């Protein structure tokens, strides 16, 4: 097989799994840095994937993996270590002669944001620019797949919760994010571009509940809770403290109506319309019933 010129991180996650499917379907060879050996059974079945078992904290392994790579896709989950891991990755990519980084960021990333996730993403973006690497920053809004966290509540209680009020959010399906990422990695014209990646419409959580009700053919209710109630629930679910704070800041940002903008990036980059929330529910129906 041809030597891979693309390296991806985050291949086992929400966006990464979909990105891997797209690269494989297009027969594009790629390297994937993954941490464990257990979670990547799917990757192992893909002939286009060269799997490198390494933690992104292992600078030596990352530097070695990046040799001969032209384009790298950078994604980690948002943890307290994310900023350092991503800054180090950018420096290593630059040192290895990588030409272009496609970085998964977040809608409204800004160094002055009150939301810690948006601040760290902006700092990583700015470092990539300072290094003079060609970049494509993918800034998705709230993932529709985030609603899968409520599947058991929707199934068992017919309701779901968030501290978000009546704010509209242009949530996006991760399949669309991966489609944009695949284009940025495999086609020209995305150099030094920032894509706000949103769904084609902004919907409130009350409207999401109506859509669940219609598609699942059972009553589903959205319950608006206080930030304190949400914080308690997220902490009880076992999230580390830094992430608990980040999620509450994120939802305050949504509740202020700051995530309602609808962008045309999915349509413009991929040539197809963004997946609607109704379609997302339809496609994951079995999980909510
Ligand atoms: N959720 C949302 O609504 C939303 C909205 C906008 C932007 N975002 C951004 O999206 C990103 C998360 O995307 P996602 O949901 O696709 O991610 P995810 O499902 O949480 O997966 C994270 C991936 O990063 C890998 N990873 C983490 N730390 C690593 C390390 N030290 N070494 C090697 N690999 C490591 C994980 O590997 P393992 O399998 O080994 O854990 C996994 O493949 C975050 O940056 C977040 O800010 C999220």
Quick tags:
Rossmann fold; 9 strands; alpha/beta; binds NADP nicotinamide-adenine-dinucleotide phosphate; 289 residues; 15% strand
Written account of the structure:
The protein has 289 residues and is α/β, with parallel strands linked by helices. It has 13 helices and 9 strands. The chain has a domain at 6-141 and 173-197 and 262-270: 3-Layer(aba) Sandwich (Rossmann fold), CATH 3.40.50.720. The longest helix has 15 residues, at 116-130. The strands form 2 sheets. Strands 3-2-1-4-5-6-8 form a 7-stranded parallel β-sheet, sandwiched between helices. It has a two-stranded parallel ribbon with strand order 7-9. Strand 1 (6-8), helix 1 and strand 2 (30-34) form a beta-alpha-beta unit. The protein has helices at 14-25, 41-44, 59-66, 82-95, 116-130, 151-156, 174-186, 205-216, 227-236, 241-255, 265-270, 277-283, 285-288, and strands at residues 6-8, 30-34, 49-53, 71-74, 100-104, 134-140, 159-162, 193-197, 221-224. Helix 1 (14-25) packs across helix 7 (174-186), helix 4 runs parallel beside helix 5 and helix 8 (205-216) crosses helix 12. The mean pLDDT is 97. The structure holds NADP nicotinamide-adenine-dinucleotide phosphate. NADP nicotinamide-adenine-dinucleotide phosphate binds at residues 9-16, 33-36, 39, 55-57, 75-78, 85, 104, 106, 117, 140, 142-143, 146.
